[in-house]
Write a structure and sequence with these properties.
This protein is an all-alpha fold. The protein has 14 helices and no strands. The chain is 68% helix and 0% strand. It starts with a helix and ends with a helix.
Length: 235
């Protein structure tokens, strides 16, 4: 009997879509094309759910040797972590996996829900991730912050933590801008002072305004305020 990781890898190659592989390579500039098999995301999610139902998820996660050779294995690994119901197990697997993430897509597509069962512990862990030297660990922390702490769990420390990120990686700065654009849509009076007072780095400040103006979630009046702010920045 083949080891489960080898068996799954062969299955992934059988699921490859050459056209989708070419499309993905254009979206993932940090991933060499030879690392992309080209399996569509819904198919990977379906495989992850199937593995979870028949008990192969833990077996795979336990036996997987990191880093994976392919992006598609990374994404499957992420979806298997996403399905873990136990908080401690999920966190253990995240801590093992995150140092090997090398692109924005795995960060953004991985949406584990079990951590939110312990929001205080999750927020504390996010603060640790935001201090990481690893670009995609920081980005994952920002995405988790945006997904889980801009709604009913919001507190002023959320925006302060995002604004205080010091990592200068492109995908980190993009995530900070994205978070503030989302915050403007749902927490206008908390987020807007960060822009009005120029508390963000210039590049991030400008990108946050741009993303907010592109959003359908802001009112015409809010966008008008942001356009005036942008014009002031040009003076």
């Amino acid at each position: 009997m083949k080891p489960i990781c080898s068996e799954i890898k062969e299955q992934l190659y059988c699921m490859s879509d050459p056209a989708y592989r070419a499309f993905q390579s254009g979206l993932l500039p940090t991933v060499p094309v030879e690392r992309i098999i080209g399996v569509r995301v819904p198919a990977l999610r379906h495989l992850a759910r199937t593995m979870a139902r028949d008990g192969r998820d833990i077996q795979y996660l336990t036996q997987a040797l990191l880093p994976h050779e392919t992006y598609d294995e990374d994404l499957l690994h992420a979806f298997l972590i996403e399905g873990l119901a136990d908080y401690d197990t999920c966190m253990k697997e995240l801590q093992r996996f995150l140092p090997y993430v090398d692109n924005w897509a795995v960060c953004d597509l991985m949406t584990p829900l079990s951590p939110i069962t312990r929001p205080d512990a999750l927020f504390t862990q996010i603060l640790v991730w935001l201090l990481s030297d690893h670009e995609y660990t920081v980005r994952f922390g920002l995405v988790m912050l945006m997904r889980h702490f801009l709604g009913e769990r919001f507190m002023p420390q959320v925006l302060a933590a995002a604004a205080g990120v010091s990592h200068d990686g492109y995908y980190v700065r993009m995530a900070v801008a994205w978070l503030f654009a989302e915050a403007l849509a749902c927490r206008w009076w908390d987020a807007y002072p960060y822009l009005a007072d120029r508390r963000l780095p210039v590049w991030t400040h400008r990108r946050a305004i741009q993303k907010a103006l592109e959003s359908r979630k802001l009112s015409p009046e809010q966008k008008s305020v942001l356009r005036r702010l942008r014009e002031e920045d040009k003076k």
